[in-house]
Amino acid sequence: MSMTEDGQFLLTSHQAAGMVSIYDVRKEEFVGSIQTPSPRSILCRGDQILVANSREGTISIFSRSDSWRLVKRVEVEHPNIMHLSAAQGPHYKGELIVTCHEDGVQGSYLGPHVFHLDVERDRDREIAKESLVSVSYDGRIALSQTSFRLSPSGTIAGYAYRDLVGSQKAEPFFRAAAEGSQTPYIYQVHSGSYWLASNMVFGGAPLKMLKEIEDKVLIPDLAQRVVYILSANQLSAHRLDVRLSEIDNRRVLLPADLNGEFHRLNKHVLRRREYLLDHCLSFTHDDTLHLFILDHESGTVLKAKTASFATPPPQPAPRSTAANSAERTSRTKSTDSPNSPQPTAPDSPSANDWADAGPLAELPLEPDHYHLTPGRDGQSLLLLQGNRLRRLGADGLSVTEEWTLADRYRWIAERADNWIALRENPYRLDIIDKRRTRVTDQISIAPAGIQVMDVHDLVIHPRERITYIAIKHDIQLPRYRVLIVNETTGGMAAPDHLLGKYLAIDPAGRYLYAAYSDIYERGATFHISPDWQITITPKYGNIDWLLSYNLSGRSATFRQAIEEAGGNSRGLRISPDGERLTYLSVVGSPPHSKNLVGFDPTKLDSAAVLYETGDVGDPTMVAFHPKLNLVASPGDGAAVLFNRETGEQLDDRLALPAGGLRGADIEDLRFSPDGKALIFAVGGVEGRRLIKVDLRLSKEDEGALTPSRRTGVDSVASRTSTVTVQRSHLDSLQPPTPPAAPATPKQIARHFMQSVVRVRCGNSSATGFVVGKRGYILTSAHALPGDADIVVTYDLPDGKEKKTITARAELAAIDEPRDLALLKIEPAAALRPVMIALNTQPEAGEQVTVIGHPAVGSQVLMHTLTTGVVSSANQVLEGRSYVQTSAAVNPGNSGGPMFDPYGRVVGLIAIKANIEGAGFAVPAAALRSFLNENSTTHPKTP
After folding, report:
1. How far apart are the C-alpha atoms of 648 and 312, rounded to whole Å?
2. Do 551 and 532 contact (CB within 8 A), yes or no?
3. How many CA atoms within 13 Å lie on the side-chain side of 225?
4. pTM: predicted TM-score of the whole model, two decimal places
5. CA–CA dist 167, 135 (Å, integer)
6. 920, 881 Cβ separation under 8 angstroms
């Protein structure tokens, strides 16, 4: 039994007679019949009537506008077609999901086959072996059911539709046992989160039962979001919402032949143990409601009509900065991919569910996988669902930009010019040009010699084009390893020492952190039964390590480890400024405490801050505020907050209405980028969505949330400069005086030690050197993470002693690709500029001297001098030329000068390799080019 989408005609199949009957609902008259062999399942889509010919392996297509004439017949590879499903209304694009079974009552267990059929091209392809697959109204998701007529082992799984019909094996975004061991065919009649199953109503993902209608018949209205519940003497109308809110009810009088036999009718309509897929139908036309019930015992369709129920309009959702986010979209981009339709926002089924909860702003999400991560600018969040990418504004909820990508992705990260996106099945890293939204490079992350069984996490280096991916690569310990991917060359490695299941990275790019969680067999116990049978039971132990790796070189070197950092890890979370790190786990940290610990990332073994989530919070989730010392964890109906540095629990910091989040399942939480609210990602029977809850902020808090101060996740490229640099003020650009004779390292140090300064920005410490007497300092761009204050420390002679001066610096120019930055300090100090070599390239074997401020842990070794030789004058790395030296360089040397024997700067220390005796410097020609490009010969005008 099926109905045309406008409710004009009812169609019923007569399988044994090879006929489909057509009934005009509005005129209440029989129209006629169409002949087709063994008709089973019927779909009405637009002008087409699609009929599955069971045992024939064909689908007949009839044209309603052409007097129900047969216009096409398409074939499916399996003969016994049981069920057809497809998107509805404007979402139908000529694609069907066809479920086939073997014959007999055990057919759903014996060899079920599911096909994806392109009706126009008459092409089918087997996509699954499930007992039944149903497509959502909007065609975005599909539900599969195993063991139809469900046995206790039956499950329901949710798939993104494009994943399911794609060329690779699809992974469900949920799989769970259905509530009710006898759940029949699940279907959807309207877009949103709600699904029907005979006498049951489900919602959300995973599906949760909203209500089971006992001893009654459930009838959906195809014209509006209403369901009707029919009992022996009453018909009631209910909104299709989380509460099934009753609209109205009225008494009914059943026909005489059904009087007193409603339980018989009810039994044969519900079909709990029957092998049938039909369901009751109704349609509201103007002021009349038409109802149709198929009585399988009598083989008849029971019809009735009554006055339509006066359905009040749904109450609007509370308006906020996020309301009507589509109207606020500033730019929408898409690719030319035919498989990437422009996304449409799903109807929100929860618009009137919690109208009494107060002004909570919400953004509906699809039930698909989602990935929520900070944007590169520090003022936005990125929300990825399949091929749909949205940028959420500073409030964490309003959509400011939206893109349709060429493929479906699981993770995404942002660089200045491209997206780094991970695709599954097969695993692949795509480099996507942000301006054109086109894939410019594809890197397979399952190369020869590296087995990738699963992917657990992904982070990108903040300044180098390197991606770190946590993979499962073996069934033997250690199972989880970190794959290092060079985005420029496509090269990759999985070092044996680099272990991890979940990852975090220091905002300055100095350290990589990994959580390694696993189990191992640590012995066995022996048991003797009363009949002297011996059994052996394995005993298992847990591994929960927090590891840190140094990234100052071209690879990652082991640095520190904490054993028993938690128990059954669920991830890592690092604060935006990189000063606190948490190990998320099921049992908490320390193990079995249910608490969270805020580690000092630079000293994992030092005293940490304890956040006593205990019984009030959730140790598997945490959020760090972008600017204030606040930490949040789910709990107390929404979240419990702590002082990040003291661990003190903070009460009454959320402007939460009575009832909190009303029991929604919290899946993730983040502070909004502007720091004024908490953003909850929640699920539940009414569907997934983001909910914004404002923070209660003091005047001092509000003062700290000025838009001009962004934190460590921001890129150095987001800094802007108001400094106009006159070329004549850059003394280092003057042609150096020809040297009389080579100088010793001691003489170079004596002459230029004062020219080498320390540069600090947030937690980052580096070196710089003076290039202009008016306070101009040259350093590395990567030494300036985010928009934290830049501080320069230098020494001035003070008689026989020296005086250490600390001054604020302003950014004058920056070039992230070349890793160079020019600073200006005020007041300008009488510092001696260096001389930058002109038209001179050092030769291999030439002696060089390096002066810098390297760090050993948290201690900085000021004015450290090392010497070596030029190993290579033109070493190309990632497409750029460097001078390679054997002089010892370490973290903190970045931005420091490398002198030739005549005291001329021939390079700026940029990186240290992960091999002994190999450092790299930006050559002098690039330094001169950068300074010339960012200075002017014209004086600054008022």
Report:
1. 49
2. no
3. 22
4. 0.70
5. 18
6. no
- Given a contact cutoff of 8 angstroms between Cβ atoms, the answer to whether 895 and 908 are in contact is yes
* Cα Rg, the chain, nearest whole Å: 34
Query: Hey, how many other C-beta atoms are within 10 angstroms of the C-beta on 277?
Result: 20
Name the amino acid, one letter, at 559: R
- Please state whether the peptide bond connecting residue 942 to the residue before it is cis, i.e. omega within 30 degrees of 0: no
d(CA 621, CA 586): 9
Instruction: Report the distance separating Cα 859 and Cα 842, nearest Å.
Output: 33
Model confidence at 386: pLDDT above 70: yes
805's CB contacts (< 8 A; 6+ apart) are 793, 794, 795, 796, 829
CA distance 903 to 226: 84
Q: DSSP string spanning 268-317? A: HHH-TTS------EEEEETTEEEEEEEETTTTEEEEEEEEPP--PPPPPP
SS3 912: strand
Q: What pLDDT score was predicted for residue 583?
A: 96
Helix/strand/coil (H/E/C) assignment for every residue in 838-855: CCCCCCCCCEEEEEECCE
What tokens does 872 get?
A: 């290579």
The two tokens of residue 30 are 């029989």
Q: Which two tokens stand for residue 75?
A: 């074939």
DSSP letter for 36, please. Answer: -
pLDDT band at 257 (very low <50, low <70, confident <90, very high): low
* Residues 597-617 as b or e (16 or more Cβ within 10 Å = b): bbbebbebeeebbbbbbeeeb
CA distance 507 to 586: 26
Report the run of H or E that residue 748 belongs to, with start and end. Answer: helix 745-752
Mean pLDDT of all residues belonging to the chain:
85
Strand locations in 434-568, DSSP E? 438-444, 454-460, 466-472, 480-486, 492-493, 502-505, 511-528, 534-550, 557-562
306-352 confidence digits (pLDDT tens): 999 987 665 444 333 333 333 333 333 433 333 333 333 333 333 33
- Phi, psi dihedrals of residue 301, rounded to the nearest 5°: -100, 120
363's CB contacts (< 8 A; 6+ apart) are: 322, 325, 392, 397, 399, 689, 690
| 260: three-class secondary structure by DSSP | coil
- What letter would DSSP give residue 733? G
* pLDDT in the model for residue 942: 33
- List 859's β-bridge partners, or say none: 856
φ, ψ of residue 133 to 5 degrees: the values are -130, 130
Helix (H) or strand (E) holding 407: strand 399-409
DSSP 3-state assignment of 485? strand
One-letter amino acid for residue 696 of the chain: R
Query: What 3-state DSSP class applies to 325?
Result: helix
Express each pLDDT in 23-43 by its tens digit: 999 999 999 999 999 999 999
Phi-psi region of 139 (alpha: psi -120 to 50; beta: other; left: phi over 0): left
- Look up residue 654 and give its DSSP letter: B
Residue type, 345: A
For 327, other C-beta atoms within 10 Å of its C-beta total 8
Alpha carbons within 13 angstroms on the beta-carbon side of residue 139 total 21
Taking the C-alpha atoms of residue 460 and residue 475, their distance in angstroms, rounded to an integer, is: 26
Q: First-to-last CA distance in the chain?
A: 81
689: nearest Cα among 426, 359, 361 = 361
The first and second tokens of residue 531, run together, are 């009949």
β partners of residue 289: 284, 306
- The CA distance from 669 to 685, in Å, is 19
Burial 818-856 (b: 16+ CB within 10 A, else e): bbbbbbbbeeebebebbbbbeeeebeeeebbbbbbbbbe
- Please work out, in degrees rounded to the nearest 5, the angle formed at the alpha carbon of residue 188 by the alpha carbons of 44 and 308: 80
Q: Tell me which residue of 210, 204, 220, 135 sits closest to 180, measured CA to CA.
A: 210
**What integer pLDDT is reported at residue 265 of this predicted model?**
67
> What is d(CA 812, CA 825) in angstroms, rounded to the nearest whole number?
10
